[in-house]
């Protein structure tokens, strides 16, 4: 994905850092015995059965790695593949991906519904299917958004098999600290896309959804999660919308906030053709015990 901003150097933790030192099937991964992160990579060109079958296999390999490890619980997934909104054989490729992903969860005996990990799904401008993942020894607390129908309960008009993800995952990270991973969040209220063609209002609505998820997280953790302290990645369908999206984003989070300073903006396709922007976020907080 093309980096739209910031102008300063951005560190890519996946490709720029930690040695990935183990492999199984199409998965390459690294673990310290507590956290496990890696990536399942499948090139559809070398794979029979198209994107649905490739997605199912990528997840099957990933689940096999987790099942054999002391860190079997998925916290967060980042799904990337090309031509996301293209229809082949009468079915949009994002929907083909959803079918394969959901089948793999069920085949592995994992819930494809309540308790699913946090995730995002973005369209790249080329390259293979890549499923990056982060897993740990304890299951995270899955969080839903009261403003949105859970994605795993979307009606079938968005595809025969619904997407498999929760709106956020709250996980203890040791030292009385918690991490919150907020899934890709878009201008969807209920199950419907709002503000067709209006990238500014879609950005505002996405941030209103993130604020709603933060409210739920705060009530579960008794910790003061704030939008201003989150690190966000902002995915923009049209590079020409970058300035408008950044202006709205910085206005809402505060121009001088950590969130404004740390946000990364990338060009990507979004999983519904009518969505122009999607925002994901994560942050760390002290884990105050619930009152
Ligand atoms: C949505 O809310 C927007 O398929 O893993 C956001 C986060 C979206 C994750 C996924 C899709 C996914 O439905 C799209």
What's the average pLDDT? 93
Which H/E pattern describes the elements? EHEEEHEEEHEEEEEEEHEHHEE
Structural class call reads: alpha+beta
Bound molecules: 3-(2-carboxyethyl)benzoic acid
User: CATH superfamily membership, which one?
Assistant: RutC-like
Helix content: 25-40%
Quaternary arrangement of the chains shown? Answer: single chain
Strand content: 25-35%
CATH topology: 60s Ribosomal Protein L30, Chain: A
Number of helices, where a helix is a run of at least 4 consecutive DSSP H or I residues = 6
Shape type: globular
- Taken together, the total number of domains comes to 1
Major beta-sheet overview: 7 strands, mixed
What is the CATH class name?
Answer: Alpha Beta
Q: What are the low-pLDDT stretches, counting only 5+ consecutive residues below 50?
A: none
Please state how the strands of the largest beta sheet are arranged side by side.
1-16-15-17-12-11-10
Give a structural overview.
This protein has one domain (19-286): 2-Layer Sandwich (60s Ribosomal Protein L30, Chain: A). Helix content is 26%, strand content 30%. It is built from six helices and 17 strands. The strands form four sheets. A seven-stranded mixed sheet has the order 1-16-15-17-12-11-10. It starts with a strand and ends in a 5-residue tail after the last strand. The site of 3-(2-carboxyethyl)benzoic acid has 12 residues, from β8 and β12.
């Amino acid at each position: 994905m093309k980096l739209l901003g910031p102008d300063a150097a951005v560190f890519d933790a996946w490709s720029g850092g930690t040695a990935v030192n183990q492999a199984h099937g199409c998965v390459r991964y690294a673990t310290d015995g507590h956290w496990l992160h890696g990536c399942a990579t499948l090139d559809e060109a070398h794979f029979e059965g198209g994107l649905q079958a490739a997605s199912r296999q990528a997840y099957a390999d990933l689940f096999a790695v987790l099942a054999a490890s002391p860190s079997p619980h998925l916290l967060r997934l980042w799904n990337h593949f090309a031509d996301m909104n293209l229809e082949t054989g009468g079915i949009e490729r994002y929907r083909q991906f959803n079918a394969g992903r959901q089948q793999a969860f069920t085949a592995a005996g994992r819930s494809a519904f309540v308790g699913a990990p946090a995730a995002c799904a973005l369209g790249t401008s080329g390259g293979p299917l890549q499923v990056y993942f982060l897993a740990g020894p304890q299951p995270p607390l899955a969080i839903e958004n009261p403003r949105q129908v859970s994605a795993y309960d979307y009606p079938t008009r968005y595809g025969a098999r619904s997407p498999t993800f929760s709106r956020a995952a709250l996980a203890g990270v040791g030292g009385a600290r918690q991490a919150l991973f907020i899934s890709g969040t878009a201008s969807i209220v209920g199950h419907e896309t709002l503000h067709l063609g209006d990238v500014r209002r879609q950005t505002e609505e996405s941030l209103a959804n993130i604020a709603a998820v933060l409210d739920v997280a705060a009530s579960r953790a008794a910790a003061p999660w704030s939008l201003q302290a989150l690190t966000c990645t902002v995915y923009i369908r049209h590079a020409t919308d970058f300035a408008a999206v950044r202006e709205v984003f910085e206005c809402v989070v505060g121009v001088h906030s950590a969130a404004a300073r740390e946000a990364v903006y990338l060009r990507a396709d979004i999983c519904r053709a009518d969505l122009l922007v999607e925002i994901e976020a994560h942050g760390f907080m002290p884990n105050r015990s619930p009152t």
